[in-house]
Specification:
Layout lengths: L4 E8 L7 H10 L3 E12 L4 E6 L2 H14 L4 E4 L5 H12 L4 E4 L16 H9 L7 E2 L3 H8 L6 H12 L6 E4 L8 E7 L4 E7 L5 E3 L1 H14 L4 H17 L2 E4 L2 E3 L14 E3 L16 E6 L2 H7 L6 E4 L6 H17 L3 E5 L2 H7 L3 E4 L1 H4 L4 H6 L3 E6 L2 H8 L5 E4 L16 H11 L4 E4 L7 H5 L5 E4 L1 H4 L4 H17 L2
Parallel strand pairs: 1-2, 1-4, 4-5, 5-6, 10-12, 14-15, 14-21, 15-16, 16-17, 17-18, 18-19, 19-20, 20-21
Antiparallel strand pairs: 2-3, 7-8, 8-9, 9-13, 11-12
Helix pairs in contact: 1-7, 2-3, 5-6, 7-8, 8-14, 9-10
GO cellular component, one term: cytosol
Pathway: Cofactor biosynthesis; thiamine diphosphate biosynthesis; thiamine phosphate from 4-amino-2-methyl-5-diphosphomethylpyrimidine and 4-methyl-5-(2-phosphoethyl)-thiazole: step 1/1
EC number: 2.5.1.3
Length: about 500
């Protein structure tokens, strides 16, 4: 399979700690074909920049034209661009370019030296002209201050600034708030004008980490080249940067090289994704063991399945309201207690609390409408559905009892806007997440052994049981297969 192609248009840092060196290295780690277009060559070390030699705009255009003949990009990542005349050439190119692009509006080095050789205001005004042609712009707080001509000292001001940058023509803004020092968390704000969220990671020891901006924007570009959505790309890139800082290597006293490696697969690097900035890391729900985990739509299924040895079950009702719904929940709770089983109620968290169910399962669309504090205070388990990195990061913010990942295979149980994740991605989730994982979506008795090989803690099924010709026989066989794998029974 042919690799996607990403271009880097950036400057050269001879230390290799930032700029085009880093861009190319990251693309390779993400298994993306890389091309490097050089806009400027700097003379610098960890103490500062001593000279800048921008390449001519015509030469930069020639590099683009030469590469276009054989290496048409899926994504272009732009960093240090050199001169105003270069903006003109890049603008002409972007006007006829239909792929994706990411702009890291580099105005100064990590050491604080300006990288602008011309009038700063004129340079910034020229750079802004690129915004309408770029898919994601990733300024840090200091760069946003220079572009907007105002100071940003709070998270509220960061939000306002991001929307002001959108008003300049940008489609998506990720404003890096790591420079706000009043928090134990490093938090970035994303918005496209219609939606927005914060991405928060635990703040790591303060050092001069070189190339973090290059790393973030290049990781975003690599993920976009691989076909990930912008939201997913932001989450994965944040994971990549946090791991890089966490494992950074000090090159001289006080200055560290960001660590680069393959795909990030550690929950410690997964950001919390929330509509508002966090004040602290969120509290955890108690964890639970799910094993075979049927999802059913009526209490009579509990009466049928619980005597067979099912210990965890979910009641998911979408076609009842009022008294009928309440009666089904009430009866299901009674049956679960009779057979010492854990019952999760899908969506209706208030009824779950009222009638004494042990758990609540929420979809992504239900999270904002639920009172998570009340669910936690009631001592319930919380399970959350996820289908992608963006949703996993959202679930992570609630520290749930388990995370459900799916669909693993194509499913007819519900209409899905997400393509099947497959066994390979399920294995990656298992390597990445410390939460108990529940696999769901299109799992059958025949597919079960491959799912079990991933060592997920729970297998959730709907139609494989409820639409089976003989649900009792299928359930017994499913339990037997799972327990043989888990316990060698």
């Amino acid at each position: 399979m042919k690799k996607p192609i990403a271009w880097s248009i950036a400057g050269v840092d001879p230390t290799g700690l930032a700029g085009s060196h880093v861009d190319v290295e990251i693309f390779k780690h993400f298994n993306v074909e890389s091309c490097a277009i050089i806009a400027a060559v700097t003379a610098q070390n960890t103490s500062g920049v001593t000279a800048i030699a921008p390449l001519s705009a015509d030469h930069i255009a020639a590099q683009c034209n030469a590469l276009w003949q054989e290496f048409k990009p899926n994504v272009i990542k732009m960093g240090m661009l050199g001169m105003i005349k270069t903006h003109e050439k890049i603008l002409q190119f972007l006007e006829n370019y239909s792929g994706l692009s990411v702009l890291d509006p580099v105005l100064s080095s990590s050491t604080g030296n300006s990288l602008i050789l011309e009038n700063e205001k004129q340079y910034i005004n020229s750079l802004i002209r690129l915004f309408p042609y770029v898919d994601v712009v990733t300024p840090n707080r200091i760069e946003a201050e220079k572009i907007l001509g105002r100071q940003l000292g709070s998270y509220e001001e960061i939000q306002e600034a991001a929307h002001a940058l959108l008003a300049l023509g940008a489609k998506n803004i990720l404003l890096k708030g790591g420079h706000v020092k009043d928090s134990l968390l490093s938090q970035d704000y994303w918005t496209n004008g219609q939606e927005s969220f914060w991405l928060a990671n635990k703040r790591l020891p303060n050092k001069n980490y070189r190339g973090t901006g290059c790393t973030l924007s290049s990781a975003i570009a690599a993920c976009l080249a691989l076909g990930y959505s912008i939201k997913d790309a932001l989450v994965i890139a944040k994971m990549y940067v946090h791991r890089g800082i966490r494992n950074s290597i000090e090159v001289v006293k006080g200055t560290a090289r960001v660590f680069h490696d393959a795909w990030p697969e550690n929950q410690i690097d997964l950001p919390y994704l929330s509509p508002n900035p966090l004040k602290q890391e969120p509290p955890s729900f108690k964890t639970c063991h799910t094993e075979l985990y049927p999802v059913v739509d009526r209490s009579h299924w509990l009466e049928k399945l619980l005597p067979l040895g099912i210990k965890t079950i979910q009641l998911r009702i979408k076609d009842l309201q009022g008294k009928q719904l309440a009666e089904e929940v009430k009866r299901s709770v009674r049956l679960a207690k009779k057979y010492s089983a854990t019952l999760f109620i899908n969506d209706y968290w208030e009824l779950a609390i009222q009638y004494g169910a042990e758990g609540v399962h929420l979809g992504q669309e239900d999270l904002l409408g639920a009172d998570i504090t009340k669910i936690r205070q009631a001592g319930l388990y919380l399970g959350i559905s996820t289908h992608c990195y963006y949703e996993v990061a959202t679930a992570h913010t609630f520290n749930p009892s388990y995370i459900a990942c799916g669909p693993i295979y194509s499913t007819t149980s519900k209409v899905m806007s997400f393509k099947p994740q497959g066994i390979e991605q399920l294995q990656r989730w298992r390597r990445t997440l410390q939460y108990p994982l529940v696999a769901i979506g299109g799992i059958s008795l025949e597919r079960l052994p491959n799912v079990l090989k991933t060592n997920v803690q729970g297998i959730s099924l709907i139609s494989a049981i409820t639409k089976a010709a003989d649900p009792d026989r299928v359930t017994k066989q499913l339990l037997k297969t799972i327990r043989e794998q888990a316990y060698g029974e």
